[in-house]
Q: What sequence folds into this?
């Protein structure tokens, strides 16, 4: 995972690693580093680039990681999360299903949006700051 | 009391000790897919009952898995048990030295990747494992 912090805009740019089944632990460990960075630097905006990341994982394991990540992010002070997405249908259906599930479980303390354009994503993060 | 039982795994819960003991119903080769299914059952019940102590007994599996399979399965179990009430995990070792070596090195890798919020210990004797699990000072 690549983390890049832009102090001028207070945005953390993270590139999600490939979601491979056998790398599940290291993927979560990478997310944990991202969460730690957000917390320590009190960063309010996160752009998570998943557009070029492969997905090869069981639905329930993917959901497990997303649940852990959502719980972790909820206590960071994050205000806005934007996901840069690819047209990968499989992944998007995964995420849609997951969001439906967590929607009923908890209301997130931060706003979430998806964009396929990086410019649009950054514009949304900077809006109403 | 038996919380759950299928053709792959049996989960025996002792509420007084808050201890979940896993066991395979028969001595035979269980493949990676079956181990995965067993792990999903374990994770589900640890969460549902807020269990703090877990004894893993996979000694009735006669099949040694590949490194990738161990890595995949152990990662699944480890990540699945994060953010649960679980505090201590004991695993019963088998007499298969190669299998034990693989699992031990995998556990080292896991600990390096992620500081685990649970204590994990290997035991050859079930009585020792239970004693350690129930010991208050850890």
A:
């Amino acid at each position: 995972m690549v983390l890049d912090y832009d102090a001028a805009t207070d945005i953390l740019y993270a590139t999600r690693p490939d979601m491979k089944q056998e790398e599940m632990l290291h993927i979560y460990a990478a997310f944990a580093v991202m969460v730690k960075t957000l917390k320590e630097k009190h960063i309010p905006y996160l752009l998570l680039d998943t557009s070029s990341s492969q997905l090869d994982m069981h639905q329930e394991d993917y959901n497990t990681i997303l649940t852990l990540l959502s719980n972790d992010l909820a206590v960071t002070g994050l205000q806005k999360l934007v996901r840069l997405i690819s047209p990968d249908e499989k992944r998007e259906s995964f995420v849609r299903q997951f969001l439906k599930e967590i929607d009923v479980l908890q209301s997130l303390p931060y706003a979430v949006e998806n964009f396929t354009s990086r410019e649009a994503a950054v514009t949304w993060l900077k809006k109403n700051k | 009391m038996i919380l759950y039982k299928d053709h792959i795994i049996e989960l025996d819960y002792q509420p007084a000790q808050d201890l979940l003991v896993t066991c395979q119903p028969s001595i035979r080769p269980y493949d990676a897919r079956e181990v995965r299914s067993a792990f999903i059952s374990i994770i589900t019940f640890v969460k549902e009952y807020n269990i703090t102590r877990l004894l893993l007994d996979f000694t009735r599996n006669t099949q040694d898995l590949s490194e990738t399979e161990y890595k995949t399965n152990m990662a699944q179990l480890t990540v699945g048990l994060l953010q649960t009430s679980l505090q201590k995990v004991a695993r019963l070792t088998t007499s298969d030295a190669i299998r034990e070596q693989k699992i031990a090195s995998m556990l080292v890798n896991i600990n390096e990747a992620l500081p685990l919020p649970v204590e994990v210990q290997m035991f050859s004797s079930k009585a020792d494992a239970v004693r350690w699990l129930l010991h208050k000072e850890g």
